[in-house]
Amino acid sequence: MQKRKLYTLEEKRQHVASWRASGLTRHLYCELHDIKFSTFRE
């Protein structure tokens, strides 16, 4: 069983900024960065 990744506030902010700059959908960004979609929120 894999352990859930806990992100710091700064990591979350960086992911949101990277996602916005990428032009990708949130779903695709999450898939590419191995982030659970249900936990990725703005």
Automatic annotation (TrEMBL):
It comes from the Bacteria. This is Transposase.
